[in-house]
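Chapter review: from sequence to fold.
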Amino acid sequence: MEGAALLRRMETAVGSLNASQEFSRHQPSDSGSVRKLLLDTKTLRLILEEADSLLRMFWRAALPKSEESKPDQSLKEEVVSLRLKMSEQEEALKDAMERLKSSNRTKDSMEHFIVNQLSRTRDVLQKAKTNLQVKTQDASVSSPSLLVGVS
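The token string follows.
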């Protein structure tokens, strides 16, 4: 706390001034003013200590120190770096999702094509079967008459 350091310096200066005036009795002194100033610095110390106590009681976050500016800066740089990496990963994920969607569309298209081809092949095979059955029936109907006519 900078106020506390300033107060200590003031107390030291006033205390040494008061002590030097007590030792040098031959100089005219204004010891009443010096004593009042010393009492005022002590009162100021009590006020600062109470304010510090109240702040610590109610303040939830730690007060920043001037020494912490470098770590804060490195943390900020790390956050920026991590955000950049995260955006790169998000972009890579989007690209992968697009490739996956494209390959799924291609797969679906190929499946549809194969199903259509199999359906056509089935239709052709059914038609061929029907034609063979008709020819077989025609051949069996015409064969007995030939056999009957020969006998």
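Two observations follow directly from the output. The radius of gyration is 51 Å. DSSP finds three helices and no strands in the chain.
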